[in-house]
User: Fold these one by one.
Assistant:
Number 1:
Amino acid sequence: MEVKIAKFVIDGGGQLKGEIRVLGAKNAAMKMMAASILIKDKVLLENVPDILDITKISEILIKMGAKIERKIHQLLIDTNTLSQTEPDPHLVKEFRASVVLIGPLLARFGQVKISHPGGDKIGRRPIDRHIKAFQDLGINVREDSGGYLFQKTDKLKTLVRFEKISVTATENILLFACGQNQPIVIENAAIEPEIIDLCQFLKKAGAKIAINGRQIIACANNLKAVRHQVIPDRLEAGTYAVMAAATKSELKITQLIPQHLGAFLAKLKVIGVKFEIGPDFLYIKKPENLGATKIKTAEYPGLATDWQPSLGLLLTQAKGTSRIEENIFENRLGYLEELQKMGAKIKLINNHVAEIEGPTKLSGANIASLDIRAGATLIIAGLIAKGRTQISQAENIDRGYEKIEERLQKLGAKIRRIP
């Protein structure tokens, strides 16, 4: 997709109606694209969303020599001609998730040089845990002003134990392990649904992977061609659920996996949102009374940090004083300052804790999208606000939501994109 600097203009106050489909999980699809480096054959991924983050990692792989063809929601990837071991520095600096390329490139070529990965506005995310994990395996890591050089040695070790759970570091070591003949043990690993889906993808390609609680044991040799359908995006599903509840609408959200929404649905129930769960859908009913609660983020199976912003917005419409505790990222509460511009009654205690008083009527304002989930949250805020809301930096939302304005227009939302 073409990257264009744009804004969203929303006229709020209306309700939504109909159904909306959940697309593929970007956090699974991107890691499978990285995993294709390990497979000297064709990889076919299905249910891949047409979003900016997928475009960015595609550009990185293509510049390294890979061939990628897109057809609607399919990607055909061939990395047999991959020759470079240094991802384009400019693209890496724009794209934080590029850090997950270290594991497969190191496994295939024995070394990789990568620039300092770019960050975003939800807080610093240094790659210290990645570095330490690779060093624990006997990998030499050197850092200079330009970035990092990872080099495999002949003294490979077989155990990594994370002191603190890290999703991308778990994925990085898992991908490295799937390029080794001897099993590597990962302890205190992240076990998000996207990681489990990545494991299923790798097993289809011939990897040997065993998961026992938070322990993952993996190895592989000569992975083969694979076809895989990416799981639905649970984070996107959560956005639409809150959107329905906040706008007091009835909405059917289809093609999702309810089991992946456990902690989120439990919190919705506490707040007072009524819903029906089907085998692959979620039907949000028009809420009557919303009540205050406490939001506390945690690693899966806890409440995902990506759900926190939309739930925070919903709590501005709930009666009483709510509390948010963000335990994953240091600056993920920045969106609350944008909501304050719209009239929300919020007390920011520190970078991790905030209190919200509700219910509060929001008014349209000129606000900015700080990141993917904050941006989607502000769209919801615009939909329930009185008057017109203008959201700048729409490209941040495009990173994780495919043509969101077109999809919401079909539900009755008054939203449009302008230059």
Note: The two ends are 16 Å apart (CA to CA).
Number 2:
Amino acid sequence: MKSCEFCNEFSSYSNSRFGKIYKDEKIINRIIADSINFVVLPTIAQLVPNSYLVLPKKHYETYAQVPSEYYDELLSLVCKIERKLSKNVILFEHGAKSCTDSGCGIYHAHIHIVPINSDFEYSQLVGEDAKRENDFHKLMYSLRQSPNYIFYRDNNGNYFYNAFCEHNKAMFVSQYFRKWLHEKFHLNKSWNWNDYNFVEKGVLDAIENIK
């Protein structure tokens, strides 16, 4: 899709936002791992070192729209990255369709992999009324009809999820998870990935550290 920043990067790296910022770094692309249907990229604006995104190569707005027969492949790739990081990680996605005018402004499904300990209550991230699931297939089935949802997976493989409604709309703002990380860990840098129009050493490190 022409309007999708990720699709543009996959089809024409040198003309993409990332490619233009990092043009002098001799990077062919920022893909650090892939499978038949998915790729892994270092996150722009590394709030937590060695944070990554997992994306489908084909354009889907949310992971709940991705064909279920691809999920085992996805989970295998995520496990590969987790093993290379050799530490606890959390996963999260704000699955927002473009019709909701929510999410981070890029409507291409992406799961965040962030290496932190989940030593906090899930309700801090997804609300007291969040539902729990321990199987990714079942989680995605539950969210299949939702145009706007969030999910978080803790270090123990438990998934907690919520869907948009009027009383929890504060959780469904742009870059909600990034704002939460920024506040939770008192980070002395901008939470907004749009502010990072420069070469980040953290991104270069994340590319090298996972090889």
Note: The helical segments are 5-11, 17-21, 71-85, 123-126, 136-143, 176-184, 201-209.
Number 3:
Amino acid sequence: MDGVDGSISDGVLVLGATNRPGTLDSALLRPGRFDKVIYVPNPDREGRQSIIDAQCRAWEKNGAACDIDTAKLSSVAITGMMTGAEIVGACREAAMLAIRESLEKGGQNMPVVLYRHLEASLSAVKPLLSNASVLSEYTSFEEEYSK
């Protein structure tokens, strides 16, 4: 980052992201390096539903069908503490479950991702932020470096 003075005229924006802020090298956190720390929380209900909707569209684009009430799956009880990446991972696993099921039936029909596939894959995910120590790490990092 040497030589980047941080002015708009240099045309350079340096952006960093991590899900483990406590492991960052202290050199990165010295004044003038990353001047602003922004905590990006988990997606809200609308965001979770948008992620699941996007996955359904991707399945349909790639030759599978999606028969899921995404509004039901975006509820706090099912996906509330999940990150976007965790939801996408569960969606991919649900698609694999549907494909396996289709192949077991002879593979003649298009795979159909059903609510039960996604529910099963979501229930297997242990959300990172459900761990109180990880959430505490994020909170303390933000408080220390957002000044």
Note: Residues 45-130 form a domain with the Helicase, Ruva Protein; domain 3 fold (CATH 1.10.8.60).
